[in-house]
UniProtKB/TrEMBL annotation:
Keywords: Hydrolase
Family: Belongs to the peptidase M20 family.
Protein name (Swiss-Prot/TrEMBL): Zn-dependent hydrolase
Coiled coil regions in record: none
Gene Ontology MF annotations: hydrolase activity
Keyword Hydrolase: yes
Length: 432
């Protein structure tokens, strides 16, 4: 059962965002953590630049007569009150970055959410329920990713809070303490699912589909699942000159065999949207005249189907076992992350599509191949996403960009959707 979504013709909003304000906010936030040498932005979670960005956002929230708030996970909120306290409509993303980032990933969703709230406030729109802008902490993964939205949804565990560390072995808890934050308070950031009426997130696509098809916006129907493994192949280090080829237990050759198996495994066990990547490898002892005795490497694989992810998991392990037997190796698999696929609520996607039609936008419904905070929220509450094009499919790079016209189109789509959700007597829900 689901609540009906009003047809596009039954709703009309004369409101529109101010693109110049959006531009000013994007450029202002991009200056925080900017590196002149490589033009990248360095605003990684719980660094000084990240905390400066959070303070900037709180200041902008206060300047626009919204109610500022933060929680134990250092998620930043700005609230536009409504007639009732809960459930409320949330809109957001994140403002932390990867190293050498561009200015839009995550940031665009937060800035557009801010613009939507101040536009509604300035217009004096009477809301049935509050709209809360939220900027989640550490989406990008300095300490594993999704920290803020995990805390928000109650998925954060004391174990992760105490054990999570970055690539330089800095503990999450130590990084928070250094910024004057009490890590234990992050466990208190959970919101009851009944308080979350809906969550919307706007994000750059981070892929080429919208750009190549000349669409202005994408309406996400599902967010792909992701499994990340750290793998270790152990053979025997030996002299490169004196060890005959048929006597070797070469761990790097095992990795090469496995890498060549990936296309076959995807063909036989995957689907149209399956992806698998070996993005990092470390060879030991790492000497030119030594047979590699150990290789530690990563495997990232994704699919929108949980069943397909499990089939790929089994196939990858079967291939590793066969290669290890053939080459005299041992293998270990350590699961680093397991993010399950999450569908967007169909009724919310339909509402976004109705708004896109009302605004006469070029759009398509599509899959998200990247993980987002929306994926965490979607486990406990109704969720939907809007994509805007990434020029050339670029992301996580200073070259990432979206045309201002497409940003304006996405922002007005989000504004109309938030207006509808916050002024309707009932919210789209689904119990199926």
């Amino acid at each position: 059962m689901s609540s009906p979504v009003p047809a596009a013709s039954s709703f009309s909003s004369p409101l529109a965002v101010d693109l110049e304000r959006i531009k000013a906010d994007i450029h202002a936030l991009a200056a925080i953590g900017h590196n002149d040498a490589d033009r990248g932005i360095y605003r990684m979670a719980f660094t000084d630049a990240d905390m400066e960005g959070k303070r900037w956002l709180l200041h902008r929230i206060e300047e626009n007569d919204l109610v500022p708030a933060s929680d134990g996970a250092a998620n930043i909120s700005g609230i536009l009150p409504g007639k009732v306290e809960n459930p409320r409509v949330f809109v957001g993303s994140h403002i932390d970055t990867v190293p050498c980032a561009g200015m839009l990933d995550g940031t665009l969703g937060v800035v557009i959410g801010l613009e939507c709230l101040r536009t509604l406030r300035a217009a004096g729109v009477e809301l049935e329920r509050p709209i809360e802008l939220i900027a989640f902490s550490d989406e990008e993964g300095r300490f594993g990713g999704m920290f803020g939205s995990e805390a928000f949804t109650g998925a954060l565990t004391p174990e992760k809070l105490l054990s999570a560390k970055d690539l330089n072995a800095v503990l999450l808890s130590d990084a928070m303490l250094e910024q004057g934050l009490d890590p234990k308070r992050a466990l208190d950031a959970r919101r009851p699912p009944t308080d979350i009426g809906a969550y919307l997130e706007l994000h750059i696509e981070q892929g080429p589909v919208l750009d190549q098809s000349l669409q202005q916006v994408g309406i996400v129907e599902q967010i792909t699942g992701l499994r990340s493994w750290s793998l270790k192949l152990t053979g025997e280090a030996n002299h490169a000159g004196t060890t005959p080829m048929d006597y070797r237990k070469d761990a790097l050759m095992g990795l090469a065999d496995f890498a060549h198996e990936i296309p076959r495994i995807l063909d036989e066990n995957g689907g149209e949207h399956s992806r698998a990547t070996i993005g990092k490898a470390e060879v030991q002892p790492g000497a030119p005249n030594s047979v590699p005795g150990t290789v530690v490497f990563s495997l990232d694989f994704r699919d929108p189907s949980s069943e397909t992810l499990e089939a790929l998991s089994q196939a990858f392990q079967k291939a590793l076992a066969a290669i290890s037997r053939r080459r005299g190796l041992q293998f270990e698999v350590n699961v680093q992350g397991d993010i399950k696929p999450v569908p967007c609520l169909p009724e919310l996607a339909d509402l976004l599509e109705a708004e896109a039609q009302r605004l006469d936008l070029r759009y398509r419904r599509m899959l998200s191949g990247a993980a987002h905070d929306a994926q965490m929220v979607g486990r406990v509450a109704p969720m939907a996403m809007v994509f805007v094009p990434s020029r050339g499919g670029m992301s996580h790079s200073p070259a990432e960009w979206t045309a201002w016209g497409d940003i304006e189109a996405g922002a007005n789509l989000m504004l109309g959707a938030l207006h509808r959700l916050a002024t309707q007597e009932t919210l789209p829900t689904s119990t199926s």
